[in-house]
Design goal:
This protein has 677 residues and is α/β, with parallel strands linked by helices. Helix content is 30%, strand content 20%. The protein folds into three domains: 5-168 and 215-258, TIM Barrel (Alpha-Beta Barrel); 319-410, no CATH class; 435-571 and 623-659, Aldolase class I (TIM Barrel), CATH 3.20.20.
Length: 677
């Protein structure tokens, strides 16, 4: 039998119990801080210890989600959270932040590290990079096709985990800044306000062209296991226990080859958005994948909740207990019991008495000892040594059995993992001269005069169409997926052409750039939020680093380390990286002609930038900081990010940044002053 792990979400203790009793092999949960579902009930340290103990008694593992970006001011508290996880006996920690991963690897070397889907790793090169960073498992993006998952399984040096049921974000996880820009509630910090469920419409589209149906790959679990996936994850730490129970049971049925159409119907009733989709897995993208939560979806849940409660109302008897009973005249009655490799011995204060009427028999003793109902134990071997003609009260037999079970149930604690505090000193940054770096999505918009530009970034594959210069570098797409061999080939050709540097917003891209022999720079999407994360990239050989656009100016200025760093100082911030193009819900690519847009309920337009099978949904207005350049301190470069601007407009904006000019038209300061939760 394949080693298949059903991994269940748990936002509360009731959900933990529902998951365990419904057949989960592992649960994942969060504490009060540093997890991507901060609005779930979550667990205190004492609750975490109790949860781990309960789960381990049932042979169920506990994965702790510490999967958000961490600021420099939070690193000590994050390290303390790791210490508590070690003391509680947690089985693995799920991480997004490279700095926190480094802390765990140094302070708790025995703790398995799982790379969150928020790390956006999509390629074998990225998985190999994770292995070098100490990760033992990666949670893959939800957007992968069956063929892409199979290829990753065949080339991965670490375990792979896939989501098989639950909500689908429109955006590739870890690459969404929509909630942050609209209301400072960062998805990378566990506070997403889910703007994708609001009416953002493409012309002639559905009216909700960022809202996908829920994912369900329950039918494909065995197929995926044969491909090499080891863990099958259910989304839903903010959903009710009945949902958890139904989803776990459906997955368990799939593994066991049981077809239960009634449960499938109940699973849709308890929560869905116009049903389910397997579009990404089947590589059938498009309008059929989109859906919203309708009134019928909400009312359907009430009819099945009571029924689904029955899935977890009783304790699961999953632990065998062996008994050895002794009832000999002249000696105290005793019961030895063994379970989970533990032994207990109970001796009664009473002794067997000669029977005046009906004597106690071996069968009657066995009948009482087999009554383990309502506990996690079931009776195994029962060895009985009993004198003939004696009487032992049934109440005494029951008392011995109860005491033995209680002792076995409470004996032992979860294995504590080694933890040692470690302080890594990172020097404050000392910046050089502030340089101007310009990124162009369209090479036709590059101005003729480069005098004040340190470096020009162009799309990978377009470098030969720009006048040859050591100041030209290339940008690797954040959405690589199955195109990594093509990207590697293009990078190799760029190097042969004379390009020396390339920019990438994911570990995948950085790994491919370095494999091609170019200098790697960390670009938008890298989510470098603290000094430790920057140091990890620095130690990895990354050359220049664009800091997270979710940092405030003061936070960015305080990031230490030696590597040259900069901030996003101009341009329409990419709000979402999507594999499903929302524009296609209303227009074909031929009709769109690279002029796609989304329109919100107030009529505000958000342009769509298409590239290599993925799309960037851009902010409605650009970040503008030319008039506040004196406030940008401790940076080695500032980035001007051109998307929809023409050549004349680009030249005018560059001139404004050279002479600290005022903005023309609508603009935003991004998150440089207000930051994120």
């Amino acid at each position: 039998m394949m080693n298949i792990e059903i991994l269940a979400p748990a936002g509360s203790m009731e959900s933990v119990i529902a998951a365990v009793r419904s057949g989960a092999d592992a649960v994942y949960l969060g504490t009060k801080d540093f997890n991507a579902r901060r609005n779930a009930e979550n667990f205190s340290f004492d609750e975490l210890k109790d949860t781990v103990e309960y789960c381990h008694k049932h042979g169920v593992k506990v994965h702790l989600a510490l999967n958000t970006l961490i600021s420099d001011g939070e690193l000590d508290d994050a390290q303390d959270a790791v210490r508590l996880a070690c003391e509680a006996g947690v089985d693995a920690i799920i991480v997004q932040d490279l700095g926190l991963a480094d802390i765990i690897h140094r302070c708790a070397p025995d703790m398995p590290l799982h790379a969150s889907t928020q790390m956006s790793v999509q390629t074998p090169a990225g998985l190999k990079k994770l292995k070098k960073l100490g990760f033992t498992r990666a949670v893959l993006p939800r957007e992968l096709s069956k063929e892409e998952i199979k290829n990753l399984c065949e080339n991965s040096p670490i375990e792979l985990e896939c989501f098989v049921h639950g909500a689908l974000c429109m955006c590739v996880s870890g690459q969404c800044y929509f909630s942050a820009l609209l209301g400072s509630r960062s998805g990378n910090r566990g506070a997403c306000a889910q703007p994708c469920r609001l009416p953002f419409g493409a012309p002639y589209g559905t009216g909700h062209d960022l809202s996908l149906k829920d994912l369900s790959l329950v039918d494909y679990i065995r197929e995926m296991a044969e491909m090499g996936v080891c863990s099958f994850k259910i989304e839903g730490r903010m959903k009710r226990p009945e949902y958890v129970a139904a989803a776990v049971k459906a997955c368990r049925n799939s593994v066991d080859g049981i077809l239960d159409n009634e449960l499938r119907s109940d699973l849709r009733s308890v929560f869905s958005r116009s049903g389910f989709t397997d579009g990404y897995y089947k590589n059938k993208l498009g309008i059929e994948m989109f859906g919203t939560r309708q009134k019928d979806d909400v009312t359907a849940a009430a009819a099945v909740l009571k029924k689904l409660e029955k899935l977890y109302e009783k304790e699961v008897a999953d632990t065998k207990i062996d008994f050895a009973f002794t009832g000999i005249l002249g000696e105290p009655i005793s019961l030895a019991a063994q379970a989970d490799g533990k032994n207990v011995f109970i001796e009664s204060e009473t002794q067997p008495q000669p029977a005046l009427n009906k004597a106690t028999t071996e069968d009657s003793v066995r009948t009482q000892l087999e009554k383990c109902g309502g506990t996690r134990f079931y009776a195994g071997e029962i060895d009985i040594e009993l004198d003939e003609g004696v009487f032992i009260p049934v109440s005494e037999l029951n008392k011995l059995r109860r005491e033995a079970i209680e002792k076995l149930d409470s004996s032992g604690a979860s294995a504590v993992k080694t933890f040692k505090n470690e302080f890594v000193s990172i020097k404050p940054h000392s910046n050089g001269k502030k340089r101007l770096i310009c990124r162009f999505s369209d090479i036709e918009s590059i101005p003729e005069n480069w005098d004040y530009i340190e470096q020009v970034i162009v799309p990978l594959g377009m470098e030969k169409n720009v006048k040859k210069s050591v100041r030209v570098s290339v940008e690797v797409p954040r959405g690589i997926f199955g195109s990594y061999e093509k990207i590697l080939r293009q990078l190799t050709e760029a190097k042969e052409y004379g390009i020396t540097e390339a920019w990438a917003g994911t570990l995948d891209g950085i790994a491919l750039i370095q494999k091609a022999g170019l200098k790697a720079n960390a670009f938008f999407g890298s989510n470098i939020f603290n000094s430790r994360s920057l140091k990890v990239l620095e130690d990895m050989g990354v050359n220049k680093i664009l800091l997270s656009a979710e940092l405030t100016m003061s936070q960015a200025q305080a990031v230490g380390g030696e590597a040259p760093r900069g901030i996003f100082a101009y341009g329409r911030l990419p709000l979402m990286l999507t594999r499903n193009c929302p524009q296609k819900n209303g227009k074909s690519c031929a009709d769109c002609k690279q002029n796609g847009k989304l329109i919100d309920r107030r009529g505000v337009e958000f342009p769509i930038e298409c590239r290599m099978g993925t799309n960037d949904i851009l902010n409605s207005v650009p970040v503008y900081m030319a008039d506040r350049l004196n406030e940008i301190r401790n940076m080695d470069f500032i980035l001007l990010y051109f998307t929809k601007e023409d050549k004349e407009n680009c030249a005018e904006i560059i001139s404004s940044y050279i002479r600290s000019g005022k903005a023309k038209g609508d603009f935003t300061r991004g998150l440089l002053y207000r930051g994120v939760e």
